[in-house]
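The pair is quoted verbatim underneath.

:::
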Amino acid sequence: MPRLDMVDTSNNNGIMTKANWRSMKKYGVRAMVAKLSEGTFFTDQTAKTSIQNAVKAGLHVNGYHFARFTTVAGAKAEAQMAAHCAFNAGLGKDAVIVLDFEATNSGWSRNAAIIKAWVAEVKRMGYPKTDVYTMGSWTNSMPLNNSSRGGWIANYPSNPAGLKFYGSYNGWQWTSTHKFPGCYGGFDVSQMYSNYYYGTTTHVAKPEKAIYYRYNPKMIYARTPINRYKDIAFKHKVDNFPTGTVFAIAKVINYGKITRFQLANGYYITSNQANVNRLYYSVDGGVKRVKSVRGTHRYKDKALKHVVDWQPAGTEFDVAKIVKHGDTTRIQLANGLFISGNKKINKFVK
């Protein structure tokens, strides 16, 4: 039979105990992959404890996100969801964050665009190791193994004995029903062909303490999908807004040891800096260089009324200083000209 190198688990398996993992380890299991999230709506609450127990048992730990996106914007939103869930579950930067891509096959061109967008965003969020999981019949419909080794493929033959499918990929998931003594139910198991998933067994990152705004930044944009609520306790949800949405903040309201943002219409949103960021650079932000996102004008004055010229998308500017203008800021260049201090217009480089 193929080897039992790696097991992937989810809420369907329940919380995996240290004893469960030790039992599996006796049969050759070296690594695990825990389900972290799905779409932008589901967080697997079993992941954190299962990962912690796997580390205690001496296994390598990784995580996966089940994809529901069909657009680049959706891919980026789900990538942010996956990265936040990975961090909150305690996965370190040497863990592999896997894209489970098996819900919608839109053909090579679209699949390639949206998968690459997801991978790039997960890496931008701080997780450099990614992989793509899919079924064997989809391997020619997406970028999996085009640059060195990559891809984790599922294919369940009725008799896998003596077989070695997908040997040029990272791994082959050869069954979804394997039984381990002392463990309830059947498990997905894989035979691995590289060491890619064997990154760490020694440390589970502790989530950093959440940082909340204590002052009013006036304008913010969403780093992640954002809910609006009727009440400060966040018990009565009104609606949801996608990543990138800009909000004008009316007030910062204390709520116990944290704060909430109140909008002009009286609704509340989070002030957690992991979820929202100020729209304009701060005067003391230490910004040295920015890049135009879609192209930008340069101006003679900080009121941005007297245009000098137009600089195309991708132009980088060295920052002389950030200057305040009302509730916003401007970037003053070394030649004395000004550009907008809006981060969505001129993004941070260093």
Summary: The chain has a mean pLDDT of 92.
